[in-house]
Amino acid sequence: MKQLSLLIVVTLLAFNVYGQTDNYQPAHEGWLVEIEDAYNESQATGKPIMAFFTGSDWCPPCKRFSAAVINKPEFNTWAKDKVVLLELDSPKRKSVPNEIRQQNESLKQAFKVTGVPTIWVFNLNKNSANDQFEIDAIGKTGYNSSFEQFTNTIEEMLN
Predict the structure, then answer these.
(1) How many whole angstroms separate alpha carbon 61 and alpha carbon 155?
(2) What are the residue ranges in the chain where pLDDT is below 70?
(3) Residue 1 resides in a domain
(4) Which domain holds residue 136?
(5) Is 147 exposed, middle or buried (0-12, 13-18, 19+ CB in 10 A)?
(6) In this predicted structure, what is the pLDDT of residue 46?
(7) How much is the pTM?
(8) Taking Cα atoms as reference points, which of 51, 146, 150, 56 lies closest to residue 95?
């Protein structure tokens, strides 16, 4: 897949998400739910962010993707070396803090996500002059039916 070069400015800090959602847990263990946390980990490790736009409790393809890819032990091993995991969930039966819901909607709009599951890989920088995030998109994918197919797709984006 050809690398996409896209710069989008997202004004997420206006929502002041960081630190206000301690009780909210992602549907997938080990994933981050706050863009600020993903940014900090990405900056510390030099790894790009992999954002998973999902409807964890209502979307059949999202559930199939989770079972076929994300819930596999080898996925966690692979991801630990390659990307920072960010879950952007829009569940129907699970309560989501307002700040997280607003953050997820802003990112959904910024990336022009029209359906789930959608996975975007990107680098994130913060403009110190205006406290806005600048997103440098690497690429996106949707549903993949196997761990191998998915990781091969992401590896192509990263190379």
Answers:
(1) 22
(2) 1-22
(3) no
(4) 7-17+26-158
(5) middle
(6) 97
(7) 0.87
(8) 56
The Cα 69–Cα 55 span in angstroms is: 16
Contact at 8 Å (CB) between 138 and 156?
A: no
> What's the total number of domains in the chain?
1
115: domain CATH number is 3.40.30.10
Looking at the domain assignment, is residue 2 inside a domain? no
Tens-place pLDDT, residues 73-108: 999 999 999 999 999 999 999 999 999 999 999 999
Report the C-alpha gap between 141 and 97 in whole angstroms: 27
Which neighbouring-strand residues pair with 84? 49
Task: Give the single-character DSSP code of 66.
Answer: I
- Residue 31 and residue 85 in contact, taking contact as beta carbons nearer than 8 Å: yes
Q: Exposed, middle or buried: residue 152 (CB in 10 Å: 0-12, 13-18, 19+)?
A: exposed
